[in-house]
Every structure is written in C-alpha cells, then in structure tokens.
Design brief:
about 120 residues; alpha+beta; Double Stranded RNA Binding Domain; four-stranded mixed beta sheet; 2 helices; globular
Length: about 120
C-alpha cells in the first residue's frame, strides 16, 4: 500500500481487527482510484445525551488533488458496520466524481423558449 494511511481510536480500545479491516478497504480503493493521496480514519465511541451506553462512529477522509472527501457513519452496536458503511459511502462519492470527470453523467436539455406556465394569460 503506497497510500499514506492513518487510523485513530477515540474512546475505543485499539483493535487490530478493525485496523486491518480499514486498511484492506483503503487498499481496495487505492487500486481502483489512482489519484488518491491519503486516507485518514477515525473510529470513536460517542455517548448520547441522557442515555446509558452510546454508539460507534466511523469517519473516513480521503485526500485527492485539490479536494478532500469526508464521510461519517454511526452504528449503535458495531464499529465494523459503521466503518463498512463509511467506506461504502466514500467509494460511491469517488465513483460519482470519476463519472463526472469522464463526462458520463447525463445532462438535461434546456427547455425551449416560450414554453412554460408564465406565458402571461389573463
């Protein structure tokens, strides 16, 4: 993996399984999107106001030339699920950007002049 990868755990015990999972997902994205420059992942345990316990939150930030994509997802019981959902969302955003750059996104035709509801009827 040539992509600079960092992972941080906030309020959660460091887990090699979670780290390996995140690293493998980042490697997969690196193979498909060659313009990625860095990947930062944060896994945290958040508490909800007035409730016992909390939920897991995963934040994935991908750096690309001239911009950064950031996605966060949360799950009540499992950090793996929050992380999986965050990586799935960032993959979709990367794919959307790739489609736009390649010009493969449909554009709508401009409406013809003089058609519409504001034609000035009495």
């Amino acid at each position: 993996m040539n992509l600079p990868f960092t992972i941080q755990f906030d309020g959660v015990a460091r887990s090699s399984a979670v780290e390996d999972f995140a690293r493998s997902r980042a490697e997969h994205l690196e193979r498909h999107f060659t313009d990625l420059m860095a990947c930062r992942v944060t896994v945290s345990r958040e508490s909800r106001h007035g409730q016992v316990g909390g939920f897991f939150s995963a934040r994935v930030a991908m750096t690309l030339p001239g911009r950064e994509l950031v996605v966060s997802h949360a799950h009540e019981h499992d950090a793996h699920i929050a992380l999986r959902d965050a990586f799935d969302a960032i993959r979709r955003r990367l794919e959307d950007g790739q489609q736009i750059r390649r010009g493969k996104v449909k554009t709508h035709a401009e409406p013809a002049a003089g058609t519409g509801d504001d034609a000035g009827g009495e």
